[in-house]
Amino acid sequence: MSRRTSRRIPVPPTWLPVDPYILALIGTVVLAALLPASGTGAAAAGGASTGAVALLFFLYGARLSTAEALDGLKHWRLHLTVLACTFVVFPLLGLASHGLVPYVLTPQLQDGFLFLCLVPSTIQSSIAFTSMARGNVPAAICAGSFSSLAGIVLTPLLAAVLLGGSAAGFSLDSLVKIVLQLLVPFIAGQVLRRWIGGFLTRHRKVLGLVDRGSILLVVYTAFSEGMVAGIWHQVTPLRLGALLAAEAVLLALMLTVSRRGAKRLGFGREDAIAIQFAGSKKSLAAGLPMASVLFGAHASLAVLPLMLFHQMQLMVCAVIAKRRSRDPLPDDATLSQQPVPVG
Questions:
Q1: How does pLDDT run across 263-276, given as a tens digit for each residue?
Q2: Residues 6+ apart with CB under 8 A from 19
Q3: Is the CB of residue 214 less than 8 Å from the CB of residue 57?
Q4: What is the enclosing helix (H) or strand (E) of 155?
Q5: Angle at 247 between CA 241 and CA 253, to 5 degrees
Q6: C or N: which end of the chain has fewer Cβ atoms within 10 Å?
């Protein structure tokens, strides 16, 4: 191969990604700050947001392959490890954040910080980073799916126990809303998957826009309510900086615990990578709709920590995945130790 043909084409750096969707979320927050929905408009936006969330979880249910989920049960130790990171270790660290009030975080921001620790893991980014790092991609798919499914039930229950009155007076009525708005559409999607699964596969890109559009509508509604209620006067740049520092520590701890824990439990390299990426992340798509139900008018402050953590985890995990992709695989090490024939 000539030097000309082997020369690499320059590409933009990918180690510090700026997710376009995050820019859209920021734009939605700015729009809510400048033109918040109020009165009749707020009622219409709230109704549309409720319908969009139901549609969102219906599509989640319709996309999740039951056969793939059942097949993934053979990796039950891996899935239990990810679930333990997501719904045990994360919540414990969230409870420890009570010690940051009032010197580092306000009570409202600490509620959002704790809520961030209760939501399920991501699916798409966990798969992407696991693939980039040459880890166990099928395991990451199943682990993220199981976490999202478990989160529909576990996140509201954990919020009821750990947040108590902070979650807009969590009550049986709130739990019923969660079930009707999230779980029932999800089950309906699973039931109808047999007939609509092919259509969803063929129109995946369009439905992806529906997913993201639904989340943007939820964000606009939540932040509009916050603007009307005047709660944004409680957040200062110093508090935001302190929140970012606390989340950086949280992410560093979870990345370390998930990786070292996987090694201690005897998982191989590929499984350990899937555990680290699936066990250290939180889902913005699943967390925002739940926050809108649980926190009501205070949802804007409650989801702020989750939105910041989402972008932080993308940036940090992209760097880690890039480095892990250069790790020598066992086969590569074996080949490098073999003598090179002469002559």
A1: 999 999 999 999 99
A2: 311, 314
A3: no
A4: helix 137-162
A5: 140
A6: C
